[in-house]
Amino acid sequence: MSQMIFVNLPTADLERADKFYSSLGFTKNDTFSDENATSWIIAENILVMVLRDEFFASFLVNGDAPVTGTGGRECLNALSADTREGVDKFVADALAGGGAVYRPADEPFPGMYQAAVQDPDGHVWEIAWMSPQAMENPGA
């Protein structure tokens, strides 16, 4: 069996978060969704679990607490896009779903086009496309 990744994120408002992740075209996994959490399938082996703050906190130890909103960042979730247009569509879909632009689209390196959005709870999702030529000649 292939390994899978589950990105677990706290949310202050599960319904608002569900609208956002649905707008990105992710598929809701009803088997692992209930009143405390929603499971979203990004790809076959990549899922995001959005958990109400209180439920998320039940998995934490040592006095740790869920973090949402703006301020410090512990991680940037990054996904690939098949095309430059896919990057722009992801950003547009995120905005339509209640998200916000975190970093506008740009081309920091020749052949790499990227942007980043925030979900309604402030979690950052990067999206990037790399040209086949850039993938063959990294750093060139």
Description of the molecule:
The protein has a single domain, classed as 2,3-Dihydroxybiphenyl 1,2-Dioxygenase, domain 1 (Roll), CATH 3.10.180.10. The chain starts with a strand and ends with a helix. The longest helix has 13 residues, at 84-96. It has helices at residues 14-23, 53-57, 84-96, 132-136; strands spanning 5-11, 27-29, 37-43, 46-52, 77-80, 100-109, 112-118, 124-130. It has a 4-stranded mixed β-sheet with strand order 1-4-3-2. It has a 4-stranded mixed β-sheet with strand order 5-8-7-6. The protein is built from 4 helices and 8 strands; from the N terminus they run E-H-E-E-E-H-E-H-E-E-E-H. With 140 residues, it is α/β, with parallel strands linked by helices. The chain is 24% helix and 37% strand. The mean pLDDT is 92.
